[in-house]
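Before a colleague's protein record goes any further, I have to sign it off. What it holds is a sequence and that sequence's fold in token form. My question to you is simply how this chain folds and whether the tokens agree. Thanks in advance; the entry in question is below:
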Amino acid sequence: MTSHIFISSMARSGSTLLDKLLNSHRNLTIHSQPFPYIFIEAKRRFYQIINHPESYYFLNHYFGENHYQIDQLNGFLEQSRWKRTELINLINAQQGYSGQQTSHDRYHGIDTILPDEIQGFDPLLRKLLEALPGAEGTSTGSKEILCEEFMPYLASHGFRTILIVRDPRDVLTSINRGKGEAYFGKPRPTLFHLRNWRKSVAFSILLEGHPNFLRVRYEDLVTEPKNTMGEITDFLRISPLPDHCFEGEIHDQNGRAWDGNSSHGSKHGISTSSLGGYRQHLSIEMTRYIEYVCFPEMRYLGYPLEKNSWNSAHLTCFREPFDIRRPELPQDYSQDPVHIKQEKQRQSWLQGDYMKRPPDEVLVQWFLSPAVFQALAEAVASD
């Protein structure tokens, strides 16, 4: 049986539904976003060491990243040292943070279980998970959104890692409509969200084929829940979920009926009602903008696209429909001429002659790795 599990995703991609379903298994205890500040602090410390200019979004989207590569982050995580007092302060500081979804009473007594100091992010996360209450004899794990960059390190250290992805058009709908702001804060620019969505796909391609990694599509989870969860439980080396887990109410980690966290109201059980919601809530201009920016990844994942989606006119004609009230991100982020040029250049490389592709160091900066670039280029060429 798998000992430790880690789940991540772009926000509003179905990771909460997945952690609730997995937690219903008699052999699993899955905690929902128990340690977001620990992950943020790990990246903050790393950025400080390498003099990275980012000072707010430590869990960043990696597009255009030229200050480090993933192996450097992995090396830092391996050598990082964590004092008990620092960890307790971070856990206490999480209270009231919307990104922390585990009941506060579950942390009671954790300070008496942690050693004075822990070296390495792998033993740190294991110790933190084991310090939280769970059913005796179960495998334990957690879900943290926007933490995909930790997955290569954790997978290499024996964590079973699962990344769930969702149609970016529905992701943006969920973020910006209904209760989206309550779940994910004040509006951010559309392009910023889409680059974070592409980050999820890039890491899923980077890890594809790794024995400790599995990618799941939200659409498959809600339309074929029994089959999809069967693939997941096989991956985790545990028995399938019983049929009653797919019928009626879903319960949270405290045993209460879970109404879901949809942006458009309560949902009991597994529901397909949010699929394709962008058709009712997004303008044609925004839908085409998303399809252009995410075209290679959507093609790679098998999401349906309009025939004229890959047209740069959708990029240049777009105007941000939301009021961006964030000092760290400008209102014109999605229409910034520099960003538009970057997006066009990215698409040009993917459409170009593979034999004339940019050097590997350029591909790492803009695609995370040459392997990701190749996979996307092949998806585009198969169109």
Observations:
- The beta strands are 4-9, 28-32, 81-83, 117-119, 139-143, 160-165, 213-217, 250-251, 257-258.
- The mean pLDDT is 92.
